[in-house]
Amino acid sequence: MEPERERTGKHFKKGRKRRRAPNTLVGAAEAMRARWELGERQPEAKKARLSAILFAENCEVTHDQLCELLKYAVLGKSSVPKPSWCQLFHQNHLNNVVVFVLQGMSQLHFYRFYLEFGFLRKAFRHKFRLPPPSSNFLADIIGLKKKQATRDQSKMGEGSLPSTSSKVRVNLQNDPIIQKYGSKKVCLTRCLLTKEEMKTFHFPLQGCPDCANFVPTKCNGSITDNSPLFGLDCEMCVTSKGRELTRISLVAEGGSCVMDELVKPDNKILDYLTSFSGITKKILNPVTTRLKDVQRQLKSLLPPDAVLVGHSLDLDLRALKMIHPYVIDTSLLYVREQGRRFKLKFLAKAILGKDIQCPNRLGHDATEDARTTLELARYFLKYGPRKIAELNLEALASHQELLATGQELRNTAEVVQQPNTSVLECLDLMGQKLLFLTREPETSELSSARNCETVKCLSNKEVLEQARVEIPLFPFSIVQFSFEPFSPSLTEEMNKRMRIKWTEMSTVYAGPFSKNCNLRALKRLFKSFGPIRSMTLVLETHQPHLCIQYEVLEAAQLAIESLDGVLVEGACIKVQRPVTELTLDCNTLVNELEQDSENRGTIYLSGVSETFKEHLLQQSNLFLGLEAVILPKDLKSGKQKRYCFLKFKNFGSAQRALDILKGKDWKLKGRHALTPRHLHAWLRGLPPESRRPPGIRVIPPPSEQQALQALKVDHPKIAAWRWGRKIGKLYHSLGPGTLCLILLPGTKSTHGSFSGLGLMGIKDEEESTTPNVCL
């Protein structure tokens, strides 16, 4: 069995507590994977990177979830579970973690002073909403205030998995297996991978450029629920031309092995991968069977309606250089959260209660692995998705990972096995200290911690100066700037006016029209640009006008760009926003929003149907660089709305796709995106009191006028402009591979709470190429 697609993360290296340059260590597991990945899909020099899109449906990330990410960044997958809300790839290539906290600021401040926050909005592609702050924000994101969990799991035997009967009952509807297959039993044909899925997961397919010399199995019969299943597993070695086949095992439904052949590669062997395959030079020397012999034998053995079953079967078929249309892949059948996969060894133990790939045996037994995948497929068909979901595989896997970690670190500390471990404890296990720079006078739990190097400063300027010197010396740093907030009443007023501004920017006036114009036709026309919140006929003018309020800013901008100065219903109309003091700078704001790093490379499309996703994925070869498809849903009905966002790797890919989708074959309307996903979630529900009839003037209250006249250095408006630039310069001085988070914690007062905002990125981050679909 080939090594599975799981990566062991790097631990921050142990060493001196201070004055130590950051270090990167690639572990033994990484070196092993580097060997077997030679050839096909050989990676370039890896860089740590974040997923293209967040998993949080409402784009809000809790303080506990932030703590998950920070712990994972320190210890990696081998010690703590992966974060549940985003993906951090190649964690072992991270060099440092730096967290900037802008105390006294919120999401409201960021968008109120959006133009002033020039660097932050352009440099950080990943943005998310934070809940209103607690009494001790820093302690929460570091994990200091979590209650200690019971240690029952850590006391369980290491060779067994915990019983699901003792676990808290989970909501089965949230289980990814139930979400994909439903709760009722499924038939065999439902378990087959579709052609679309096979393309997504890199299965060899006819017509693919990289499969030109592959041999088809000629199995093209009609598949039924009684079609025969065959378990397949292959072992490979690394040759001068990449990975090549060294053993194939094929097992029939009854469990009998119908084919078990050693294969001599055509090219010089560089690495036998004996620890995985069990094959050595001595074993392979007398073998005369070649790949073409195996291909011929397999074609003769398989009936026309044969279904192949395997684990990461795409790799086996590519090693065989064969194409087969009917497959069940147990690594995809047993669906896991966030696109991850369970290992075959784990599924065998958790589902079947059997131990395979035992450490005291040299290499994997290909026949045993093939037979196991067959049994797993049969179990799924016999008991159905609900039975699988009740086993709570995700919790079992996390438990097993924690036990493995506990075995490694038992002589050091048992604390990592607990889900409530703090970031400080993780660093302490690695012999590292956390740097905390602050100007806050009060002493927090964080500053009094044993392995926290706290530097208290007299001003934000001093914090900045110390950060330049100290950050390179620590693997993990928290830099806290403190700003004087607005008064609670002024903040509330600013919140209302901010929402009004976005409403007015999403509103257009169109006209004049003739008095006998076709209102239905006009409504269809304006609705083609995006969802309409309201449309009103304005009769105060000599000729009728329309006032259209859109749900999204992109729709309003698209209507202006498409119809202003165009002949409609026999009249040349003007389409424009209402002119108020809140919209005077809207053209500048729209241009800057389009340049926002989160919007750059994202396009907005209107007029999409419910089958749009299927059509898009079927022709994905036309849309190179597609990373994510965001399909908004109606909150009440749950139906997909008639607009979407497509996120691409870069601006050029987005522009090419936009040209195609607006062409005659697709006939969609669209433009480059203006509003990040987290902003949609914030503005989605506008309270009635925050709206006003367009055109009514809002005069800034005297208190704000006075505040703006008496701006101080630490006032949020000046801070946004000045400190955004200063943090930008500091960010540019950080080394490659630094995970950087900018956190605006939010504000809390007697007038209410205001959500925070998070921005994150990795210095010199490598872009993702795996598409995601978000509903």
UniProtKB/TrEMBL annotation:
The keyword Nuclease applies. Residues 10-21 have a biased composition (Basic residues). The keyword Cell division does not apply. Residues 506-580, 601-671 form the RRM domain. GO terms for molecular function: exonuclease activity. It comes from the Eukaryota. Coiled coil: none annotated. InterPro entries: Nucleotide-bd_a/b_plait_sf, RBD_domain_sf, REX1-like_exo, REXO1/3/4-like, Ribonucl_H, RNaseH-like_sf, RNaseH_sf, RRM_dom. Keywords: Exonuclease, Hydrolase, Nuclease, RNA-binding. Gene3D superfamilies: 3.30.70.330, Ribonuclease H-like superfamily/Ribonuclease H. Residues 1-21 are annotated as: Disordered. This is RNA exonuclease 5 isoform X2. It comes from Vulpes vulpes.
